[in-house]
Amino acid sequence: MLLNTYSNTDFECGTDEAGRGCLAGPVTAAAVILPKTFYNELLNDSKQLSEKKRFILKDVITNGCICLASAHIWQEEIDTINILNASIKAMHNAISKLITKPTYIIVDGNKFKDYKNIMHKTIIKGDGKYLSIAAASVIAKTVRDDYMNVIHNEFPMYNWKQNKGYPTKEHRDAIKKYGITKYHRKSFRLLPEQLQLDL
């Protein structure tokens, strides 16, 4: 059973990102503040949920939260500042958009940078331990998936509607065949034999 709060403060915010390991598209973060009374037995780490359940939960979270926000960091900036810094920046940007100022921040993973002197705690596998981080993981994933579905229409040969930019065999085969797009992260190892890829 996922826990409601870590700090027991009034407006604890959970934050998480999606798309960190992708070859194309943004890294997307979400920040969510839930009321202390919030509970949903379906809510879990987004990676443990089917796409259908994630989109059902997106509505449940949106309707039941105190506030939430999301933010993208685009592939060009990922290539400039690296994926770890881009992930943290996306979380900061999402937190900055919250209507209610957080009293504490809990973060999925083990890396974060101070945000405006608000106390924070990094929690490894936090999206499977705390409801607000799980909620943030669902929002980040669904918001990013919606975006990848849109850009899929521009470049259907990569099948981003299905793989969402992750390094599947199909995605890598398409890179091999068609080269890369403006949405690909040029700093990533796009193919195992990267030296043969003409950038």
From TrEMBL:
Location(s), subcellular: Cytoplasm
Co-factor requirement: Mg(2+); Mn(2+)
Catalytic reaction equation(s): Endonucleolytic cleavage to 5'-phosphomonoester
Chain residues that bind a divalent metal cation: 16-17, 108
CDD domains documented for this protein: RNase_HII_bacteria_HII_like
Cofactor binding remark: Manganese or magnesium. Binds 1 divalent metal ion per monomer in the absence of substrate. May bind a second metal ion after substrate binding.
Domain of life from the UniProt record: Bacteria
Gene3D superfamilies registered for this protein in UniProt: Ribonuclease H-like superfamily/Ribonuclease H (3.30.420.10)
Signal peptide: none
The EC number(s) this enzyme carries: 3.1.26.4
Record keywords: Cytoplasm, Endonuclease, Hydrolase, Manganese, Metal-binding, Nuclease
InterPro entries: RNase_HII, RNase_HII/HIII, RNase_HII/HIII_dom, RNaseH-like_sf, RNaseH_sf
The keyword tRNA processing belongs to this UniProt entry's keyword annotation: no
GO molecular function: RNA-DNA hybrid ribonuclease activity
RNase H type-2 domain sequence ranges: 10-199
Enzyme class name: hydrolase
Family membership: Belongs to the RNase HII family.
HAMAP family with a match to the protein in the record: RNase_HII_B
Role played: Endonuclease that specifically degrades the RNA of RNA-DNA hybrids.
Record's protein name: Ribonuclease HII
Organism: Microcosmobacter mediterraneus
